[in-house]
Specification:
The protein is about 35% helix and about 15% strand. Strand 5 and strand 6 (about 80-85) form a beta hairpin. By secondary structure, it is α+β, with helices and mostly antiparallel strands. It has two domains: about 5-110, Glutaredoxin (3-Layer(aba) Sandwich); about 110-145, no CATH class. It is elongated. The protein contains five helices and six strands.
Length: about 150
Amino acid sequence: MRYSELEDLGVEVLAISVDTVFSHKVWQEEELSKMVEGGVPYPMLWDVGGKTGQAYGVYDENLGLNLRGRFLIDPDGIIQAIEVLNAPVGRNTDELIRQIQAFQYVREHSDEACPAGWRPGKPTLKPSPALAGKVYEVWKVENAQN
């Protein structure tokens, strides 16, 4: 678990499922505490009847559960990114952290954009009419230099 990295980025994490608080308690004590010392350090919330999942479009009525959804919500309450996966596939924490870093960067540098695969310290793009149609060309040259 990389919760400390998320904390360092100023991220608040919430786990929300249709499972009851009693299921969460057993899951925390019997499963999560074996995977993460002391269990997960963030709140696990009960989505009674899937209302939150419905609001975010991840509730599967046929299964009666929320799909694996991840939502990056900025300090202004605006959803910046959504990832939804069916139950058999887990999420990628490396990509989550990369996206958080990129969204935080462009929040502070509103005249720049982070290209695919961008990492802190790597070149960004400055959107402009001159860049239109030349993104790959500029991106390729800037990344070749690093």
